[in-house]
Amino acid sequence: MKSILPVVAVLLFGVVHMSFAQADLQLGARPQGLGGAYVAVANDANAVYWNAAGLGQIDRGEATVMHWALPELNQIVVDYGALVYPVGRGAVGVSWTRQAATLEEGLQNTQSTLSVNTFMLSYGLPLASFVSGGMSLTRTTLDSPVGNGAGLGLEFGLMLRPLETDHWTIGLTAKNIAANLKNESLTPYYIGGTAYRFGTTDSTHNFLVAVDLNTRQDIEGKEGTTVKYAAGLEYRLSTGDYGFAIRGGTGSKNTSFGFGITYHFLSVDYAFVKMKDDLFGNSHKFGVSFFFDR
């Protein structure tokens, strides 16, 4: 009890001021294994969250789910799921994210739950041989003892292929555009990144390098512009229906490593995240993805 009280107090204050809704969650076990450098990769169901333009690369259906475990703070839960499917020239995607914290208080151990749910509807498609575009509509709801609320927002993304191949990509996304929650505006933020792939997506050996820059205004108690970085590496070995990947990455606030195992229509991913601050400690992200034909 004594360990959770100060944490939940922080979270309660954060929810009231929409910090949960504005958090840079870096969803997905594979993206987190890359240190959170994913805006120029985004070639799977995680594109719904990271960059809707990446849906223009999708040629089959995929569903993914993720659970974020914080061993030191098991009263905090983050769950995420996304589904994408080719439609027309591009693909449509939907996702749901739940962030929740539970507090037991008083002699009767009464439970209070704070939760933020975000729903996304996205569509992305190729605009030309070297560029894809995408857009997402977001709906965020807040449920807490201090009040409930809801709001809408927009996100936009671009994916550029300067060589008109999958080797080199540049990704750009704008989040929290015209977004609000409980009649308060959420701070827009922007992510730009680049990725280079040695080998093709169907090669036996595949090596990926990715770097992102994330910029926001007036966050984390700082005035002006805050810039965060993320960088990651992935090596993937594919033989027939089997695949294995190992990943590592670092960012302004964390260092991570992870791996993935793929068999035919199923992929299991894991990422361990070591935070550079002590508020949430280390964490584990587990992801499972399913693939199905168009």
Structure description:
- With 294 residues, this protein is mostly beta strands.
- It has helices at 4-16, 29-33, 47-50; strands spanning 61-69, 76-87, 90-105, 110-128, 131-144, 147-160, 168-177, 180-181, 184-185, 189-198, 205-217, 225-239, 242-251, 254-263, 266-275, 283-292.
- The chain is built from three helices and 16 strands.
- The protein has a 14-stranded antiparallel β-barrel with strand order 1-2-3-4-5-6-7-10-11-12-13-14-15-16. It has a two-stranded antiparallel sheet with strand order 8-9.
- The model is unreliable at 1-18 (pLDDT under 50).
Low-confidence stretches: 1-18
Query: Alpha-carbon distance between the termini?
Result: 50 Å
Number of strands: 16
**How many structural domains?**
1
User: For the record, what CATH class applies?
Assistant: Mainly Beta
Shape: globular
* C-alpha Rg (nearest Å): 19 Å
